[in-house]
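Let us practice reading a record.
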Amino acid sequence: MKRSWVMGILLYCIIVVLLFTVTSIYSYRIFQRYLPPAAQEEEEDTAVQTNNDVVPSGIEGYYIMEEGGYLIIYHQDKQTVYDYTRIPAETLPEEMRSRLEEGIYLNGQKELFDFLESHSS
């Protein structure tokens, strides 16, 4: 009697897990059908080529540029200002200053914060 009761509970648990798995897979496939094409393309891992830098499309990058003698941080589009700094451009090494006109690309916030930390006083 006890053994058949345990087997019943075990069979019940297996059926519940199978039903949960099947419904999860089915709902995921339905969800994928209704995604707009733009959202499906975002999931692909692509890269954009800009000047000499390869910019991953899914990561927000930043450009460091010089204006009025100080460093300014722009978003990846090089149009929108992300932040103004009080770091004088003359404090950078000569090799970096020559790259400021095109912009120094930093791949994500970690690289940006590391750059700012190492070049601020």
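A brief commentary: Residues 59 and 108 are 6 Å apart (CA to CA).
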